[in-house]
């Protein structure tokens, strides 16, 4: 009978920091510019150029570290990691080695009701490599785009505390969410601003000592992380079951074939010859800087969800949808605040929250999805609040609001403008409605008689006639009330 | 003043002649360009001379003068810089094949400062390849010759700057000093060089050899020129993270101040072993001079400086092995195409680098390798701290420290090329102050029996360059060594 094994998983995440300039020079970090336009002597590794650390990147890394419960070192060091590759301008990467900026953090995850605390060994700062391109028509040449070269990265190394692919995936989702809400990373897996390597080993269940670990590289979506780890666990298990030995190696995940391949064996492992970078003095972080970073640390997603439920009365589901991205939660929060301020009819925070949550989750998110806008809401939170306020006072119906929103998004106009121009405003003027009702009652004495003799269904006929006459813009509630008054009075 | 002697005047004297309108910068620049044309063939001090560039700068200074604009402290005087200092639009080779045709797109910080101060940069000076060497014989473009004796070395690695300054092909020059690279050549060529405290001058635009040691330094006829030039290039630069933010003192005002009561530390054990007799006796006489000037001589010991050479030849090559990795043919420089990427790297670097550079890259790579790092690099750094402490202790008992600059006067070309270790020992006195990061000056203090210049090295605590200016100036005033010139470079 085959033995049972326990997978042991640790993750290394490289997260790009949301600074506007690079880690060691003033070049822009903007994504998608023409190749080699965001470059300078420093990030091209020209002779004589020297690195100067980006204070903003240091601050962001500290904020991330605090969000993950790390200890921030007052003194840390940059080190050079030496290896030759064309995407590395200096043929060494400036990173941190012996004395990283942050250490000893943790992240709580929960999978299938089982909670686990994953330790974070360290979070250090480094610079990203450039991008090697192999374009068709370059005659087989490799071209290098140095725009990305030197972008600030945080490397977040976990303890080998995860025991399944599902836990690894959950850890990554949680980590990504925290970094996004801390305002330090955009969580964009497609553009490579959040990347992951995994270390996987197996050990017989109950054994303390760790097995030989295999490093998995190139797994850049949550789905692939899960698949790649599951594949690796199976692979190691079958090696062990057939009496073999797991080799220490680095494997790369191949998306098309859904399997991994050996990249480097243990013998080919690189000697990076790390040493302290003599161009950069010790990185000194004062207690005041740490306190400032702590003060700037925004509310994290778990705290937000709890607050949405308790203070705004949202359901668990609504709260989690609205905290799926910091852009959405901040849109929701400012919309709610604006509505409370703008609405002529006094609302409780719960009412305002619920109205905004409903509108954002239905109309706004659907619009973003069908238009393929990502998270770029084309209507500002305060304008959306105006629209919801108009619905609230009964000037237009909820159904009309959907149309108005689409118009606002398409034209950039304010809600009131759209309503005015389209003549969408509900007729809520009692004298107009009364006049219409009076005219109908005089024109249809038969139906009036039927109603008065007990056939209440005739009311529907009158409502329909009023709506027809007002092209559907009469306030339905007022029409009902007016009809009853005339028919019964 | 006769025209023929103009070139022997100091940088400070020449800049006041331009400032007062007695001579135009164009005239002065033509004079030096003419001398370069006439004598550089003998010396091989220049790798690049750019008359057009030089005359354009001179013309600009003369225009400013005509418009009565304020002129800078180096107004209109021709100088040159070592070829590891980046000059925008002018090739910067580091005397290496790998950068033979490399033209930087930017000026080094010191070059910006020189231009702002009104200097006329006439060209780029020869050196040991990537500043690695003590005889200038490691230049890919041929050795520089010593103006005092053409079959001898001018020293290294700043052989070009020293030879050009000593033979008055320029009024002054900038070199770089990692372990003695301006001081030993100054000593061999009978001129003055002032290596500043590490961090005092920005390294931005200096092609790195060993980043924790490299400093750009003036090479001049006398100490006042060095003070003037250092005043121009010193100061904080936000582009160099190791640049010192403190204010720059006025070095020149130290010239002429008395040195009575100054305590001169003597490190006996250091220079009595393996030192040339003429050198030892010149140092003894210098001590006598200081005594007569009212200085107090204090015997001090620096127990760890004997490890200086060993420490330096681990730390400097280790840093160099990483600094020079960028020369891979991908973005600039020589490219020798191979079968694949790594073959291209190998072929380019095999053809692009000379033997000494390769030797140091290998030494450094080894010292940083897994399993050796602790025994070599880490231990060397610890000993470096001990050397630093030695100086801190010594400076409790004295104000400056005196040693010879080099153990011998200039040796013959080819004499030590077969024995790298003997060559490394040339730097025995200059390495420890570099490792400690403290300022050090080399100034002429005598001549050997065969008429070769001898230099003394004075060191001071960090950021006390002014003290070195003061004592060196007092010494110059009571001796005649700076006024002797190599005869071969006067007009017939
Ligand atoms: Zn840049």
Task: Describe it.
- The complex is a heterodimer of chains A (489) and B (492).
- Chain A is an alpha+beta fold.
- Chain A has helices spanning 55-67, 165-181, 222-241, 287-296, 301-312, 316-322, 326-342, 349-371, 381-392, 398-411, 415-422, 430-443, 445-452, 458-469, 476-488, and strands at residues 5-16, 71-72, 75-76, 79-82, 92-95, 102-111, 114-127, 131-133, 143-145, 152-158, 194-204, 214-217, 249-254, 259-265, 275-276, 283-284.
- Chain A folds into three domains: 5-292, no CATH class; 299-422, no CATH class; 430-488, Orthogonal Bundle (Arc Repressor Mutant, subunit A).
- Chain A contains 15 helices and 16 strands.
- Chain A has a nine-stranded mixed beta sheet. In chain A, strands 5-4-15 form a three-stranded antiparallel beta sheet, with no helix packed on it. In chain A, strands 3-16 form a two-stranded antiparallel ribbon.
- The longest helix of chain A is centred in the last third of the chain and has 23 residues, at 349-371.
- The radius of gyration of chain A is 31 Å and the shape is elongated.
- Chain B has a domain at 8-257: Amidase signature (AS) domain (Amidase signature (AS) enzymes, Alpha-Beta Complex), CATH 3.90.1300.10.
- Chain B contains 16 helices and eleven strands.
- Chain B has helices at residues 11-20, 25-43, 51-66, 109-116, 159-166, 183-189, 223-233, 268-272, 277-292, 308-323, 341-352, 355-368, 374-397, 420-424, 431-436, 465-477; strands spanning 46-49, 78-82, 120-125, 173-177, 192-195, 215-220, 263-266, 296-299, 400-404, 440-447, 453-459.
- An eleven-stranded mixed beta sheet of chain B has the order 1-3-2-4-6-5-10-11-9-7-8, with helices on both faces.
- The interface between A and B is large, with 30 and 45 residues.
- The complex binds zinc ion.
- Residues 22, 25, 27, 39-40, 42-43, 150 of chain A line the site of zinc ion (ZN).
